[in-house]
Automatic annotation (TrEMBL):
The protein's name: EAL domain-containing protein
Origin: domain of life: Bacteria
EAL domain location: 29-279
Annotated keywords: Membrane, Transmembrane, Transmembrane helix
Length: 292
């Protein structure tokens, strides 16, 4: 049987299909999954807060909430290490809710002008109860819906655009704002911009970090800002790391920015202290762009 022979020979031509590295990776993976379940039970997933500032004044206008795993043995673990595993095992909903509720409670007594932006994974946008869940968290924390921004990425819209649209509409009906995260990294961005009621467009860090030395990245950021202005949606710029980038994006007319230049993600207590002291974050230096 020729087909069978061919199958056999193609099989034997492959390398050993379960090597030590892969086995190790699987063990680590399931250890992380078990760890996440344990961490969820013990409320080890906590919010960190990254300041968002008005670019012209340096005034803090909000914080993005970023999950951290406060691991009893390993210390703080960043989301890249656990969010994909949580997504794969259907735990991302519980995890996000734990982080969001703690963030809302922390921020409930902050200046009412301060908004909170939270991240929603693609798989959460296939949960038809998402809006109700978020509304329940808001009620539990006593946090007004108008101060909450929900960030979704374009890839969230692929699975089921109609369901996504339904969920987004119920969020909006509650007064919750909607941001399109990591703009520029997905597909058919312009179509999505028109079909869903976004209140903010977040320009992805990948364009921003190279902006000062790379004219094409600068052109993209400038063009997106102009486009957003035309449809009356303000932009938030991610990943501002230095004064030159701050000056450049402020010059393009971008309204709000975030990044390590203004402040790295910090604990809830640190954010509370920062707001209390309001020691100003940097304002743009005039013509900081390098000449040649
Ligand atoms: P994101 O929403 O695009 O968040 C921005 C990421 O960029 C954060 O990383 C932030 O720390 C980092 N960042 C901000 N400013 C700078 C900068 O100036 N320079 C550099 N090099 N990096 C900067 P983080 O905290 O590691 O989060 C990674 C991603 O994990 C987030 O990307 C978000 O998609 C996801 N994520 C975080 N928390 C949650 C959560 O509670 N639920 C869900 N579903 N996803 C979350
Ligand atoms: Mg990080
Ligand atoms: Mg985000
Ligand atoms: Mg982002």
């Amino acid at each position: 049987d020729i087909a069978l022979d061919r199958a056999k020979s193609s099989c034997s031509a492959r390398p050993v299909w379960f090597d030590e590295g892969m086995e190790r990776a699987l063990i680590v993976h399931s250890e992380i999954e078990q760890g996440i379940r344990y961490g969820l039970e013990h409320a080890h997933f906590i919010p960190y807060f990254e300041p968002q500032v008005e670019l012209l004044t340096g005034e803090i206008v909000g914080f993005e909430v970023l999950a951290r795993w406060d691991h009893p043995l390993s210390g703080l673990i960043e989301p890249d290490r656990f969010i994909p595993v949580a997504e794969e095992h259907g735990l991302i909903g519980r995890l996000s809710e734990q982080v969001i509720l703690a963030a809302l409670i922390q921020a409930a007594n902050w200046d009412p002008a301060i908004k909170l932006s939270v991240n929603i994974s693609p798989s959460q946008l296939t949960d038809s109860w998402l809006a109700q869940r978020i509304v329940r968290l808001l009620a539990e924390a006593g946090f007004p819906a108008e101060r909450l921004v929900v960030e979704i990425t374009e890839s969230s819209l692929f699975a089921d655009l109609d369901l996504a649209r339904t969920i987004v509409t119920s969020l909006k009906n509650q007064g919750i704002r909607l941001a399109l995260d990591d703009f520029g990294t997905g597909f058919s961005s312009l179509a999505h911009l028109r079909s869903l009621p976004f209140d903010v467009i977040k320009i992805d860090r990948s364009f921003v970090s190279k902006l000062v030395d790379d004219p094409e990245s600068a052109a993209i950021v400038r063009a997106v800002t102009t486009l957003a202005e035309a449809i009356r949606v303000p932009v938030t710029v991610e990943g501002i790391e230095d004064a030159a980038t701050h000056a450049a994006v402020a010059g393009f007319g971008c309204a709000v920015g975030q990044g390590w230049y203004f402040g790295k993600p910090m604990s809830g207590d640190q954010a509370t202290a920062l707001l209390r002291s309001r020691h100003s974050v940097p304002t743009p230096t005039v013509s900081a762009r390098r000449s040649g």
